[in-house]
């Protein structure tokens, strides 16, 4: 229902407010979550194996896993993915602008 209501909503409103942040944040960081949840799980399994984990500790361990995954995904997004995206866009857009400029100057020279 939330997706249907926000599909064509361009203005600030209920679909862009703070209440939907819990849905939008994992969507924006789903790639980092997908990549690094297994790293977090592997590191946690090195601390305690499945046999060592008691039934009573499994739920807090799950919450710890989810929390650490979110923190690692946020850190990777902020300090690795976003700077890399900015650098790549800057590099390729600068190259495209140079090509566009040289093709327009050649076209204007031929007139």
Description:
Helices cover 77% and strands 0% of the residues. The chain contains 4 helices and no strands. The chain is mainly alpha-helical and 111 residues long.
Indicate the radius of gyration in whole angstroms. Answer: 23 Å
Portion of residues within helices: over 70%
Largest sheet: none
Q: Give the distance, in angstroms, between the N- and C-terminal Cα atoms.
A: 58 Å
* Low-confidence residue ranges: none
Order of helices and strands: HHHH
Helical run tally:
4
- Summed over residues and divided by their number, the pLDDT gives a mean of 83
| Percent in strands | under 5%
Q: Structural class, judged by helices and strands?
A: mainly alpha
Count of individual beta strands? 0
Backbone shape: flat
Which features characterize this protein?
111 residues; mainly alpha; 4 helices; 77% helix; flat
Fold topology:
Layout: H1 2-6, H2 21-28, H3 30-47, H4 55-109
Structure at a glance:
The chain is an all-alpha fold and 111 residues long. The protein has helices spanning 2-6, 21-28, 30-47, 55-109.
């Amino acid at each position: 229902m939330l997706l249907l209501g926000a599909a064509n909503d361009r203005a600030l409103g209920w679909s862009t407010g703070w209440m939907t942040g819990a849905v939008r944040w994992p969507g924006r960081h789903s790639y980092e979550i997908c990549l690094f949840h297994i790293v977090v799980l592997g590191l946690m399994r090195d601390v305690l194996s499945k046999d060592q984990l008691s039934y009573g500790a499994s739920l807090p361990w799950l919450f710890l896993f989810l929390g650490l995954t979110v923190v690692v995904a946020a850190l990777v997004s902020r300090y690795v993915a976003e700077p890399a995206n900015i650098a790549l866009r800057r590099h390729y857009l600068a190259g495209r602008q140079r090509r566009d400029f040289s093709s327009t100057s050649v076209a204007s020279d031929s007139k």
